[in-house]
Amino acid sequence: MLWQCQTRIKTFQPTPDRPFVLGLPTGSSPEIIYNILVRRYRAGDISFKNVVTFNMDEYVGLPREHPESYHSFMYKHFFSHVDILPQNINILNGNSPDLAEECASFEDRIVSYGGIELFLGGVGSDGHIAFNEPGSSMSSRTRVKTLTYDTILANSRFFDNDMSKVPHMALTVGIQTIMDAREVVIVATGPHKAVALEKGLEGPVNHMWTLSALQLHRHPLIVCDRDATLELKVKTVRYFEGIEQAGTDARTQGPWLAYRPKTPKAYVPQQQPTPKATPTKMPQPLRINTELQRSFDDDELTPDSMSSRMVDSAVSGLDSMLKDELIFDRMGSRVTAN
């Protein structure tokens, strides 16, 4: 994630007239990232002078000076330690007398800068991104949002584990606001994020798991540790590990894959093999020799009936019998009466 942020800013080469627009989160995981970015800035590896930031959410009714407000968090861990200009910092005002107008103005400011180039964020155990709780509309914009019990319980660790001290409402960018960014990077660490990661990656796009909306984004990236992948299928983990390895090889062996120019191969016409000539045999003309004639005997040509050639065993020998033997009588004359 750090490499992603630093590389994008350097590649963009921001200027005062063309700043790099960055969306930022808060929380325990981003705190580590901000500390490393501050060290990179102090080492001269990166500058935020021409960077415009938009934070994704803020509590409603919590004073800006409160140690747990996101204003205090950002200045404590990041803004006070880098060269970002104060006028380039945009954080929602949860104490505005007109919250709806504050949300609309926030959206207008994003549009005025040409949209967000890179949006960094985290994910909750129930799959929410920013404060877009389960059930949020996929087309939502910056608005007032009522926090769920699970979110209040999870954030109570920042308020002495007292849920009554946690604000029950917040201002948050919408899912569509995040989707409009040219690139989105989400951090998910720990086994308690495993179910959310499984629903967001392997499940269908579902407004009950708002992380799943990133399936429809053109350039999403989820940064996670091994514990957060416990609910994923083995083939899913291996698939993304292969992509990560390919990206690592590209960074160490050549330009990054997304910016590597594709050089078309020169067209080399293939020569077709010359077919070998095969001898053609012409059929010989049919000739009938009419000079050869078969001689037949006259006896063989004498017509007769087929019966004249057959010998009947039932009448054979009758011609040699005497006439006395052929006296006809009745069957009754041969029977001797007792």
UniProtKB/TrEMBL annotation:
One of its GO terms (biological process) is N-acetylneuraminate catabolic process. It holds the Pfam family Glucosamine_iso. GO terms for cellular component: cytoplasm. Residues 18-209 form the Glucosamine/galactosamine-6-phosphate isomerase domain. InterPro entries: Glc/Gal-6P_isomerase, Glucosamine6P_isomerase, Glucosamine6P_isomerase_CS, NagB/RpiA_transferase-like. Residues 266-286 are annotated as: Disordered. It catalyses: alpha-D-glucosamine 6-phosphate + H2O = beta-D-fructose 6-phosphate + NH4(+). Residues 269-285 have a biased composition (Low complexity). Keywords: Carbohydrate metabolism, Hydrolase. Its EC number is 3.5.99.6. GO terms for molecular function: glucosamine-6-phosphate deaminase activity; identical protein binding. PANTHER family: GLUCOSAMINE-6-PHOSPHATE ISOMERASE. Belongs to the glucosamine/galactosamine-6-phosphate isomerase family. This is Glucosamine-6-phosphate isomerase. The lineage of its organism: Eukaryota, Fungi, Dikarya, Ascomycota, Pezizomycotina.
